[in-house]
Design brief:
By secondary structure, this protein is mainly α. 77% of the residues lie in helices and 0% in strands. The two termini are 20 Å apart.
């Protein structure tokens, strides 16, 4: 039995490895999204005019994806894995396997959904502009085939799921730090 196996239960090791692997994969996705944004936005040509779409309005949604991926899908999972490790290393009680499974299993898919929705919206706006549309209200209304219910439902579920996963993680970790583990 290694020192790591003796110090951490198997569900901790699984959760930490899952969080770190997810962060590494999404780091590559985040970097590629930055490159894709730079290359895609070069082909946007807008003639300034009254009521016309400005360049930043056409590219803003796509520009924000890179930063959101780096924060929500790279830095936060690394921070969660680190906090889990630190809490246990400094005497925190064990968080149950079910709680970790719920926290990690809810947060990571919902972050993936949120990032995917951001990419969809960014490319929807950008490609609409490249197709000749210049009315941002019209472009925005056409998102998800014009279904505001679908749009709000998807954005709401992904964000509520992220919040649920983070709150579950924080609550369980807080409870594990209440009392030091017996020697």
């Amino acid at each position: 039995m290694t020192d790591l196996e003796a110090r951490y239960p198997p569900h901790y090791t699984r959760a930490i490895r899952t969080l770190l692997r997810y962060a590494l994969v999404l780091m590559v996705v985040g970097l590629l999204s930055g490159v894709a944004y730079q290359e895609s936005s070069k082909k946007v040509s807008l003639a300034p005019g009254p009521g016309g779409l400005r360049y930043w309005e056409a590219t803003l949604h796509l520009a924000l994806v890179h930063g959101h991926i780096m924060v929500t899908a790279v830095l936060l999972p690394i921070a969660l894995a680190s906090v889990l490790h630190l809490a246990r290393a400094h005497g925190g009680r064990e968080v149950s396997p079910q709680a970790l499974r719920w926290a990690v299993g809810t947060y990571l898919p919902c972050v993936t959904a949120t990032v995917s929705l951001m990419l969809y919206k960014g490319y929807h706006v950008l490609l609409s502009v490249r197709a000749g549309k210049e009315d941002i209200v019209e472009i925005d209304a056409a998102l998800f085939g014009g279904s505001t219910a679908l749009r709000h439902g998807l954005y709401g579920l992904s964000h509520v799921g992220m919040a649920f996963g983070l709150c579950t993680f924080a609550w369980c970790l807080w409870r594990s730090l209440k009392a030091r583990q017996a020697a």
